[in-house]
Design a protein that fits this description.
The chain is of the alpha/beta class. The protein has one domain: Ribonuclease H-like superfamily/Ribonuclease H (Nucleotidyltransferase, domain 5). Helix content is 35%, strand content 16%.
Length: 225
C-alpha cells in the first residue's frame, strides 16, 4: 500500500488523471466520502470505476463535487452511473457515528461502498481520497486485501475519485432533502439549505432548540449541548 499526492499523468482531463501510467494495467476504483463534518445524519461514501474511454465529452465536466452546483451534480451523478463499469454507495448512520467515532464510521462507509461496487464488477486497485484507509478484503475464503493508494486532495487529482465525490454528494443531498421532507421539525435548523453543516443559522438553532434525534450527539459542538 502507498500514500501519494502525485502521479505521472497518462490521459488528462482538465488536469485530472484518468489513468496514470503505473496503473494502466489495473482496474481502478476511486473512493470518496461526504458529510464527515456535518452535525446531522449519516456519513456517506461512494466508489466508482470509470471506463478507460468515454462515449462522449461529458466526462470533461467531472470535477471535485464541491465546485459544482446541486443541479450539475445531479446531472453528472446520473451520467457517471450510466457510463461507469460499476459503482457503490455506503452510509453509516448518525447513531453509528456516535458509537464508533467519525473516523471509524467513515472507514466503514467506504468499505460498504467498495463492497457494493465490487459485488457488481470486481476491480483490483483502489484510489482513496485523503490520508486514512484501513483496507478492503473482498468476500471469499481465499480473498486478499486489494492494493490501495491514499491520495491527498484526490478529488482534485484523479477523475475516478472526483466521480465518486459527485455520486456521494448527490446521494447525500437527496437523503437530506428527503429527511427534512419527512421530518419538518428539521426546518428550524435550516438543514435543507446547510445540509447538516455548522452554519451560523444551524448553530443558533442548536442553542435555542437543542439536538434532534438525527444529530450526532458526540460530534463537535453537539457534545456540549
Amino acid at each position: 500500500m502507498s500514500d501519494s499526492g502525485n502521479s505521472s499523468k497518462s490521459g488528462n482531463n482538465h488536469d485530472y488523471i484518468i489513468t496514470a501510467e503505473e496503473h494502466k494495467d489495473k482496474v481502478i476504483a476511486g473512493v470518496d466520502e461526504v458529510a464527515r463534518g456535518t452535525f446531522i445524519g449519516p456519513v456517506i461514501a461512494a466508489c466508482v470505476v470509470l471506463p478507460k474511454s468515454f462515449p462522449d465529452d461529458t466526462y470533461k465536466q467531472i470535477k471535485d463535487s464541491k465546485k459544482l452546483s446541486e443541479k450539475k451534480r445531479e446531472f453528472l451523478a446520473s451520467y457517471i452511473k450510466d457510463i461507469c463499469i460499476t459503482y457503490g454507495v455506503g452510509e453509516v448512520s448518525n447513531k453509528e457515528v456516535d458509537e464508533i467515532n467519525i473516523l471509524n464510521a467513515t472507514m466503514k462507509a467506504m468499505n460498504r461502498a467498495i463492497n457494493e461496487a465490487y459485488k457488481k464488477e470486481p476491480f483490483n486497485y483502489l484510489l482513496i481520497d485523503g490520508p486514512n484507509f484501513k483496507g478492503y478484503i473482498p468476500p471469499g475464503e481465499e480473498a486478499e486485501m486489494i492494493e490501495y493508494e491514499c491520495v491527498l486532495q484526490g478529488d482534485a487529482t484523479y477523475l475516478s475519485i472526483a466521480a465518486a465525490s459527485i455520486v456521494a454528494k448527490d446521494y447525500h443531498t437527496k437523503l437530506i432533502n428527503k429527511l427534512v421532507e419527512d421530518n419538518p421539525i428539521l426546518m428550524r435548523y435550516d438543514i435543507k439549505k446547510n445540509k447538516g453543516y455548522g452554519t451560523k443559522n444551524h448553530l443558533a438553532a442548536l442553542k435555542t432548540h437543542g439536538l434532534s434525534e438525527f444529530h450526532r450527539k458526540t460530534f463537535g459542538i453537539c457534545k456540549t449541548l
